[in-house]
Specification:
heterodimer; A: 240 residues; six-stranded mixed sheet; disordered C terminus; B: 334 residues; Transferase(Phosphotransferase), domain 1; 2 domains; three-stranded antiparallel sheet
Chain lengths: 240, 334
C-alpha cells in the first residue's frame, strides 16, 4: 500500500548523443528499473540533425528503465523536463494503485466502470501531488553539449520551480558525465530540496567521451547512499 | 490511432453508438473528433491511456456544474477499436476559432469585450476553486459572429487551487517570465491572460524569447505592455504586470470600467454604431449593458445570476444620484 513514507525514484538523463564509454546504458537502466527506479531520457537536438543512433539509444534506455523518452530542441528543454517528470510519476502511481486494485478487487482500474475509474484517477492525482519524489538528473557534459548548457541550467531551475509548487517533498541530486577531472561522473549537487543553479555554473565541459551507462549506474547508487544520509543535513554547504 | 470519418464506435458500458465525422485536433494526450451522437454533433476526446481520459472527465464533470465557459460533459466510456482499447469521453462541441487567429482581426471594442469575457470565465472557474492554468491560443475559442463570444476548451490544465500546475505552455506561464511560482491560484491565470494578449499581438514565439535570460524577458514584456496600441486595455494589463490586479474578478471589473467609459464617450456624439447596444439609458448603465449582452449568452444561467447584483448596484447608484440631484434642486429652488 502507498504509505506516508513512500517515495518515487526517478533518474532523468539529459543528453545529446550516443554513449561511447563504459557499460551499455540499456542494461544498466533495466537494472535500475528492477530496483524500482524509473529512468527517463531527454535527447537534445541542435537543428533537426538528431543522430539516429543517439535517438534509438535514448528510446531503448527509457524503454528498459520503464520511463519516457522525448527528443526536443534545447529551447523546449524546460517544459519537457517538467512534463516527463510529471507524467512518469503519474504512471508509476497508477501502476501502484492498479496493483492494489488487482489484489483487492481482482481488477485493474481500466476494468472498472468509467465513473469509478475517474474517482481512482483523482486519488492518483492527489497522491502525485503529495508523495515524496527523489530525482537524480544526469547531465551529458561532453564537448557537443557546451552551447546547450545554459539551457540545461535553465531547465533545471525551471524544474525546481515546478517541484517547489508541489505540496509533497522533493529532493534533487545532479550529476554530470563525464566528470570534472578523470572521473566518469561528478556529483554536482547531492540530494537536497531545491536545485542550486549556481553550482551548475562550475560545470567543466569539453571532455571527449559520453559515459551514459556509468552515469545511470552512479545515479542508481545515489539512491542507495541515500539511506545513510541524514535528512536535511548540510544541503548548501558544498557549493556556496 | 487515427479514426476515420464514418467509423462507428460503440461504448462498452453505455452500449451507445458514436459515429466519427472528422478529426478536429490532436494534443499531447489524445485526439479530438467531431462525432454524431444521439442525433447531434458533439466532440469526442479519445486516448489510448485510460488515466488521461478519466482524469479529464473527473475535472470536467466537477467544473461543469457551474457556468458553461467550458464544454459540458456528456458521456465517458471505452471501446475496442481494431482490437485495442480506446478510452473516450463526449462533450458539447464548441465552435469558434482559436484566439490567435481571431483576436488580431478584432476591433478595439471587441478586443476589450473578449478580454473581459476571458476574465469573467476565469472568475467563474475560480469561484469554485479551480484555475485553468494552461492558457494558450488553442484553448480559447472565439466566435466573432455572435458577439464576440469566448469559450474555453481543453480541461487538461484545470487544477485545484493550491496544487502545482502540471500542464502549461512556457510562453504563457508566469514562471517562465520570472513573475511568480507555478502554483494553481487566481493570479496564475490572470498573468497568463496578460501574457497571452501581449504575445499574440506581438507575434511572439517561444523560440526567440526563451534564448533570453529572465531579466531580459521581463524587460521585453514591460516594453511590450507599455507600447500596446490598445489604449483601453493597456492600463489594465499594466496593473496585472505590477501585481496590482491579482484576481480575475478585479480584472473583469477593470475591463468593464473601460467598456463603460467607451460607451459614455460613444454616447456623446449620438453614435449610430450598433455595437454598444442599450447605450442610451443613463451613464452607468451604458457600459454594463454592452458587457452583459454577450457574456450572458455565453455564461447562461450563471451569467444571469451575476448580472442580478451588478444590476442592483447600478439601480441603487442611479437612484442615489437621482435623489441627490433632486435634493440639490430643492435646496436651490428654496
Amino acid at each position: 500500500m502507498v504509505e506516508k513514507e513512500a517515495v518515487i525514484r526517478q533518474i532523468l538523463v539529459i543528453t545529446d548523443g550516443c554513449s561511447n564509454v563504459g557499460e551499455d546504458p540499456v542494461g544498466i537502466a533495466a537494472k535500475a528499473k528492477r530496483k524500482g527506479i524509473v529512468v527517463n531520457v531527454i535527447g537534445v537536438i541542435d537543428k533537426g540533425a538528431a543522430g539516429r543512433e543517439g535517438h534509438t539509444e535514448a528510446m531503448s534506455i527509457a524503454d528498459a528503465g520503464g520511463g519516457m523518452c522525448r527528443i526536443v530542441h534545447a529551447t523546449e528543454l524546460s517544459a519537457t523536463a517538467q512534463m516527463v517528470t510529471h507524467q512518469t510519476m503519474q504512471m508509476t502511481l497508477a501502476q501502484v494503485v492498479n496493483k492494489e486494485l488487482m489484489q483487492t478487487l481482482g481488477k485493474t482500474s481500466e476494468e472498472l466502470p468509467p465513473t469509478d475509474r475517474a474517482r481512482v484517477m483523482q486519488v492518483v492525482d492527489k497522491l502525485e501531488e503529495e508523495i515524496k519524489l527523489e530525482l537524480v538528473v544526469a547531465i551529458d557534459n561532453s564537448a557537443s553539449m557546451r552551447d546547450k548548457l545554459s539551457m540545461v541550467r535553465e531547465a533545471l531551475s525551471d524544474l525546481a520551480l515546478s517541484l517547489q509548487a508541489r505540496s509533497g517533498p522533493a529532493e534533487v541530486a545532479v550529476l554530470i558525465f563525464p566528470g570534472s577531472s578523470d572521473e566518469m561522473t561528478t556529483l554536482v549537487q547531492p540530494f537536497q530540496s531545491g536545485v542550486d543553479a549556481g553550482a551548475l555554473g562550475n560545470l567543466l565541459s569539453a571532455r571527449g567521451g559520453t559515459p551514459t551507462g556509468p552515469a545511470i549506474e552512479a545515479a542508481t547508487l545515489l539512491f542507495d547512499d541515500e539511506r545513510d544520509r541524514v535528512p536535511g543535513a548540510s544541503d548548501e554547504a558544498m557549493y556556496s | 490511432m487515427a479514426l476515420l470519418p464514418g467509423a462507428v464506435i460503440s461504448g462498452k458500458w453505455s452500449a451507445k453508438r458514436v459515429v466519427i465525422q472528422k478529426s478536429i485536433g490532436s494534443g499531447a494526450n489524445g485526439d479530438v473528433y467531431l462525432v454524431r451522437f444521439e442525433g447531434r454533433l458533439v466532440a469526442m476526446k479519445a486516448s489510448k491511456t485510460a488515466a488521461d481520459i478519466a482524469m479529464e472527465w473527473a475535472v470536467l464533470s466537477q467544473v461543469s456544474q457551474k457556468g458553461n465557459v467550458l464544454p459540458s460533459p456528456l458521456l465517458m466510456d471505452d471501446a475496442f477499436v481494431s482490437g485495442t482499447p480506446l478510452f473516450f469521453y463526449l462533450m458539447e462541441w464548441v465552435e469558434g476559432d482559436p484566439f490567435d487567429v481571431v483576436f488580431p482581426k478584432l476591433t478595439g471594442l471587441e478586443r476589450i469585450q473578449v478580454v473581459e469575457q476571458i476574465f469573467a470565465g476565469l472568475d467563474d472557474l475560480h469561484r469554485i476553486g479551480y484555475a485553468f492554468c494552461d492558457i494558450k491560443p488553442q484553448n480559447i475559442l472565439i466566435q466573432r459572429a455572435r458577439g464576440p463570444v469566448v469559450r474555453f476548451v481543453d480541461v487538461g490544465g484545470v487544477t485545484t487551487f493550491g496544487r502545482s500546475v502540471r500542464q502549461f505552455t512556457p510562453l504563457y506561464d508566469r514562471g517562465f517570465w520570472g513573475l511568480g511560482g507555478r502554483q494553481s491560484e487566481p493570479a496564475y491565470d490572470v498573468v497568463g491572460v496578460m501574457l497571452l494578449f501581449v504575445c499574440v499581438l506581438n507575434g511572439q514565439s517561444t523560440g526567440s524569447i526563451s534564448k533570453l535570460p529572465v531579466s531580459a524577458r521581463q524587460k521585453w514584456l514591460r516594453r511590450a505592455v507599455e507600447n500596446l496600441a490598445d489604449l483601453g486595455l493597456r492600463p489594465v494589463l499594466l496593473e496585472v504586470l505590477d501585481n496590482r490586479i491579482v484576481k480575475a474578478d478585479e480584472a473583469k471589473r477593470a475591463c468593464q470600467n473601460v467598456l463603460s467609459q467607451i460607451g459614455r464617450r460613444k454616447k456623446a456624439p449620438s453614435s449610430a454604431k450598433p455595437a454598444p447596444a442599450g447605450a442610451s439609458a443613463g451613464l452607468p448603465k451604458s457600459g454594463k449593458a454592452v458587457v452583459s449582452k454577450s457574456p450572458a449568452a455565453a455564461t447562461g444561467a450563471r451569467g444571469k445570476h451575476k448580472m442580478d447584483w451588478t444590476e442592483r448596484l447600478m439601480w441603487v447608484s442611479l437612484s442615489m444620484a437621482f435623489s441627490a440631484a433632486c435634493l440639490a434642486w430643492v435646496t436651490i429652488l428654496r
